[in-house]
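Comment thread on ticket #2218

A.B. wrote:
> Attaching the input chain for the structure job we discussed in standup.
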Amino acid sequence: MIRVSVQREAFDIAAEIGALEASGVGALATFTGIVRGGDGVTAIELEHYPGMTEASLSDICEAAQERWALTGCTIIHRVGRLDVGAPIVLVVTAAPHRAAALEACAFLIDRLKTDAPFWKREYRGDTALWVEQKASDVERGQDWDG
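C.D. wrote:
> Ran it. Output below, let me know if you need it in another format.
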């Protein structure tokens, strides 16, 4: 089971975990990304290419299912303007055993940081600047090609 959503509204972490937990799996792994502040950042804004972004996230989930024995994969990514402290992304993996769930979860978050078409702008007071992709994110994504 693959569930992918790109949405403006907040997600219900417990409900998303419960949906995969109900299938009787042996392990669930989750990652929740939060908008972080620092350096004067007060909010971020994410834009995406509708249809293309969802397809890219589905492809990433399919790649994880081919690599690990997953029984489920959920990726929910928010778009729009989000204040510091707001949940921005949720990744949940379900598998018969913990190693597959944990490794697949790490793979998914690393790959969506580099492979999914999102554009991010950071707000600092009255200033908004587009953010370039980090070299460290690219390197982590490439580590899975190994």
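A.B. wrote:
> Thanks. Noting for the ticket: The beta strands are 2-7, 27-34, 43-48, 72-78, 80-83, 87-95, 118-124, 127-130.
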